[in-house]
Design brief:
Blueprint (H helix, E strand, L loop, with lengths): L6 E2 L3 E9 L3 E8 L4 E8 L4 H14 L10 E7 L2 E6 L4 E3 H7 L4 H20 L2 E2 L8 E4 L4 E3 L6 E2 L14 E4 L5 H4 L6 H17 L8 H7 L12 H10 L10 H9 L28 H24 L20 E4 L42
Antiparallel strand pairs: 1-2, 2-3, 3-4, 4-6, 5-6, 7-9, 8-11, 9-10, 12-13
Helix pairs in contact: 3-5, 3-8, 5-7
Length: about 375
């Protein structure tokens, strides 16, 4: 770890440690060339997987430029230790805010606009965050939300995800995983929308949507949507759509941003979000292993046998055996979850509405914005 008295890259003077994450430490620092405070994220471990994650975050951030996304300002290495220089957000993580109190509806609306807009921008560039949670949302002193930590982000349809996870295994935070993440299926922008829905719901209620042990909480979302308390119709309909179990029935991030932005001054939405629509992203293919194939063959044979017996006894076949779903989750916040794929069929017709490209917004990269990082969430 660099000594705080030295200048990183001959430019950044490290100040107090803001926080520690799974793979990195985040320091407050002074940019002596520009005379402004910044946040410096220093890789703490040299393991190959940590280096890849650090590099992935840098490559994702250099493509992003949105006022609600913590910006990458510079990167380098000090004595062989990589570091990232980020905006310094003078504030605290949303998780800490929620610990003190739930957010008022107007605060939730403003947060929803900012974070959905940030995701829409990222999705428009083909980047999926995959770990949207209160700890990765920084709230500045003016109450404005900023999305951070793209360390496990991936490009849509990119095989690069294979270096961090493999089939049937998921990297993410169990409490905020989308159902398809729990099942170990390919993850697209819809997963970010689902996770944001859980974050907004937690912000307004002050409690996690799926409490209890991580295993049970992860599996519960495969069978039911989160309970949404009585609230104004526009917000309830938006959250119900965002947390649909079928990823194809969730709205796009651009639609969520519009839903939050279009609320009228009376507190009602000018055009209440309709029943969840199927986004036009390609459907997730079902994965059937040899065990499922063998089970299917047994069930077919059993069906034939029951048909023959039924013809002789005039009785109907007995009830089908219930399917089981299991999950194993680590003890830490960021977990690895293993669940066999579901065999339930989805019969909803596809949506014909084409996706809306997200506009590029935000200040030019050479203009430093007021504020910057950080909760000190280093992972």
């Amino acid at each position: 770890m660099p000594a705080t008295a030295s200048l990183l890259g001959g430019r950044y003077a490290l100040r107090p440690l803001l926080g520690r994450g799974g793979v990195a430490d985040v320091y407050r620092a002074d940019d002596v060339e520009r005379g402004v405070p910044v946040a410096v994220k220093v890789l703490r471990n040299s393991a190959a997987a940590d280096l890849r994650r650090f590099e992935r975050e840098a490559r994702a951030l250099e493509r992003l430029d949105h006022p609600a996304i913590v910006r990458l300002l510079d990167e380098g290495a000090h004595d062989g230790v990589p570091y990232l220089v980020l905006d310094l957000v003078e504030g605290e993580p949303l998780s800490r805010v929620i610990e003190r109190r739930p957010l008022a509806e107007d605060e939730v609306q403003r947060m929803g606009i900012a974070l959905a807009g940030a995701l829409a921008h990222a999705h428009g560039l083909g980047i999926v965050h995959r770990d949207v949670k209160p700890g990765n949302v920084l709230v500045d002193r003016d109450g404005y939300a900023h999305l951070t930590d793209f360390g496990i982000a991936r490009l849509v349809d990119s095989s690069a995800v294979a270096d961090l996870t493999e089939t049937g295994l998921v990297i993410g935070t169990a409490a905020y995983l989308a159902p398809e993440q729990v099942r170990g299926e390919p993850v697209g922008p819809e997963a970010d929308v689902y996770s944001l829905g859980l974050v907004v719901l937690e912000a307004i209620t002050g409690a996690r949507a799926y409490p209890g042990p991580l295993n049970e909480a992860a599996v519960a979302r495969l069978h039911r949507q989160p309970e949404i308390p009585v609230m104004t119709p526009w917000l309830g309909s938006v959250l119900a759509a965002m947390t649909a179990i079928d990823p194809r029935r969730r709205p796009r991030a651009t639609e969520v941003e519009d839903a939050f932005a279009n609320r009228s001054a009376t507190g009602e939405h000018t055009a209440v979000m309709p029943a969840p629509q199927m986004a036009s992203y390609p459907p997730v293919p079902k994965k059937r292993g040899p065990v499922l194939a063998a089970l299917a063959a047994v069930l077919v044979a059993l069906g034939l046998l029951l048909t023959l017996v039924g013809a002789r006894t005039s009785g109907g076949p007995g009830p089908a055996a219930p399917s089981t779903t299991t999950a194993t989750t680590g003890s830490t916040g960021t977990t690895t979850t293993t669940v066999p794929p579901t065999t339930a069929a989805v019969t909803t017709p596809p949506n014909t509405v084409p996706p809306t490209p997200a506009p590029r917004r935000g200040p030019a990269r050479d203009n430093h914005r007021r504020g910057g990082n950080n909760d000190g969430n280093g992972d």
